[in-house]
Amino acid sequence: MALTKANTSASQVETLAQLYLEGKPAEISDETIAQLCDWLMGEFHQLPLNLQFSDYMRYANAKEMFADIERGQLWVSADSYDSSVYPNPIYGFIFQGMHDYDHYLTNTDFSLKGEIVAYNFTAKRVPSLEIQKVLYSEIVLRTTAYLHLGHAATPKIVFP
Question: Do residues 132 and 36 lie in contact, with contact meaning Cβ atoms separated by under 8 Å?
Fold first, then answer.
């Protein structure tokens, strides 16, 4: 039996999701967290958008989100990010806004392929490998858990 692209993708999603779901929460140094927060604040100052906080707004697809971005605004849902890794929830808010804008800049959707492209685009800008690992967990692994389960998994950072 030949593997199809859909089977391979489903298998990749399941494998990566299990790494996330079964992984123990990573220990992240205070220095890495401070560096991540400083970097995120720099990214925030470069965003050409008005980020809007919402407890309930969630985009159904990338096209819907891109339309808002082209109007200069972006809704960021509180349930879209993990605030436990950050010393202040504003950094999770900034992270999600920056990540969603990276989807726009790379013209990618919320599929595994789209998340990997957005992650790679972001990873090139971060100041350290440790931050790349945090973002890989947040962007790629957590997304695969969502795709696998059909709903958001308990947020955490894992380093498989």
Answer: no
Which run of H or of E encompasses 73? strand 73-77
The low-confidence residues of the chain, meaning pLDDT below 70, are: 1-8, 80-83
Q: Which residue has the tokens 């790379």?
A: 106
Report the C-alpha gap between 131 and 43 in whole angstroms: 14
For residue 66, the enclosing domain spans 26-149
Residue 4 within any structural domain of the chain: no
Please name the residues in contact with 60: beta carbons below 8 A apart, sequence gap of 6 or more.
Answer: none
CA gap 22, 138 in Å, rounded: 15
Q: How far apart are CA 29 and CA 145, in angstroms?
A: 25
The predicted structure's pLDDT at residue 82: 63
3-class DSSP state for residue 58?
coil
- State the Cα–Cα distance between residues 130 and 125, nearest whole angstrom: 13
Number of domain units in the chain: 1
Q: Which of 86, 90, 85, 87 is nearest to 76 (CA)?
A: 90
> According to the model, what pLDDT value does residue 22 have?
97
51 backbone dihedrals φ, ψ, rounded to 5°: -80, 130
Report pTM: 0.90
